[in-house]
Write a structure and sequence with these properties.
By secondary structure, the chain is of the alpha+beta class. The chain is built from 14 helices and 10 strands. The two termini are about 30 Å apart. The structure holds zinc ion (ZN).
């Protein structure tokens, strides 16, 4: 068993690895002698092999508890207000990496047909839940990555998501009222699962075979839509509440469609063209819980987990990197990435005065953290020691 102090050292080191976007344990090793560590860790940094070993055995529930602690502190400080009376969470699946060569007990696998024959590809997927809080005043909104659950071999994403929610709802019973999700989640078991737990759902409706879809499809031509506007786009909205054509779901459902027109200026020709996008959502939210306009907003907020969650974590934070190919290590490194993400954004939104924050992109603060590591790397000590 590794001593407790090493666990804290390893987790705190990986938080800095993410904040400074080092990208790998090798890069961490490169700055292992920086004087920064003795201030941050109250002692020396352990070897990167130890950092890796600790993540392979660390209790992932303790990491989840750490994320919950941050949530609780922010909630008590009223930093996570509802949006128009609703607390919103968004759920989505993400494939973190794939490989033909390396695999572990947690790998999923699929057959890829190549010109040189079929090959087995190994990969990892997880489902993540992000909390979307309101924005009082001019500060940036705080989005918290609450938890993730690895998808296990032989199960689908929705099953993994329900296991995730089961755990999250014990730890965060009142953190959110409604869950947003993509079309994959428009299933009766998923809707009923949340309704049984007094939560509402809003999901993309794209399965044209569903009775409820066919029902409303017949109405679109006959019912005059309302004119609306969403983020500067002119919209035509249809809103059909109290639909009973999906009897497997325990409550009547509501279908909302938003046809949105916007102008795109082509770079090549400098011509402006009109584009239209068409969205259909199914939800358990009643018209008194969310107006049409609010429901359309929620429908679009589903993308926040992609745009502000996965995209940022993967492209900017390097969170898809396999620091160690082991099921517990992959789960643990990603939870530490979530913790780093939450603390970083909460710090930017709440601890910095607007006049200090203004005009500085995220990368400015990242470089400031990196500067701590590189300004006094402790390399001089190598020769003299
Ligand atoms: Zn694996």
């Amino acid at each position: 068993m590794l001593p407790r102090i090493s666990t804290a050292v390893a987790i705190k080191a990986v938080l800095v690895l993410f904040w400074s976007r080092l990208g790998s344990l090798n890069a961490l090793e490169g700055v292992a002698r920086a004087r920064f560590w003795s201030r941050w860790l109250k002692g020396p940094l352990c070897s990167v092999d130890t950092v890796s070993d600790i993540h392979a055995v660390v209790d992932v529930e303790a990491l989840r508890e750490g994320i919950h602690y941050v949530y609780q502190r922010l909630k008590r400080n009223k930093a996570l207000p509802d949006v128009a009376g609703l607390a919103v969470a968004v759920l989505d699946g993400h494939e973190s990496h794939s490989s033909y060569l390396r695999h572990c007990a947690g790998c999923l696998q699929r057959t890829i047909h190549t010109p040189r024959g079929d090959r087995i590809q190994y990969y990892h997927r997880h489902v993540a839940l992000m909390l979307l809080a309101g924005t009082p005043g001019s500060r940036p909104p705080i989005r918290l990555l609450l938890d993730h659950e690895p998808q296990r071999p032989g199960e689908d994403e929705v099953t993994a998501a329900m296991r995730l929610l089961q755990r999250v709802l014990v730890r965060y019973p009142r953190a959110f009222d409604v869950v947003l999700a993509d079309g994959l989640y428009a299933t009766a078991p998923f809707f009923n699962f949340l309704l049984d737990r007094r939560k509402q759902v809003l999901a993309v409706l794209k399965d044209e075979r569903r009775n409820i879809y066919q029902d409303v499809a017949g109405l679109f031509d006959r019912v005059v839509p309302c004119a609306g506007e969403h983020r500067g786009r002119q919209c035509r909205w249809w809103d059909f509440p109290e639909l009973v054509s999906w009897p497997q779901v325990k409550v009547p459902l509501r279908v909302i469609r938003s046809q949105e027109t916007y102008t795109v200026r082509r770079q090549l020709t400098h011509q402006s063209t009109q584009e239209t996008s068409d969205w259909i959502w199914v939800t358990s939210l009643s018209t008194s819980q969310a107006t049409t306009e609010r429901a359309v907003c929620l429908g679009h907020q589903r993308w926040d987990v992609e745009n502000h969650g996965f995209n940022e974590l993967v492209n900017d934070w390097g969170a898809d990197h396999v620091f160690r190919h082991d099921p517990n290590a992959i789960e643990a490194f990603l939870l530490v990435a979530f913790l780093a993400y939450n603390l970083f954004h909460a710090f930017l939104a709440l601890n910095l005065k607007p006049q200090i924050r203004r005009g500085k992109p995220q990368i400015f603060w990242v470089r400031l953290v990196s500067a701590e590591l590189y300004s006094d790397p402790g390399i001089g000590g190598l020769d003299s020691s």
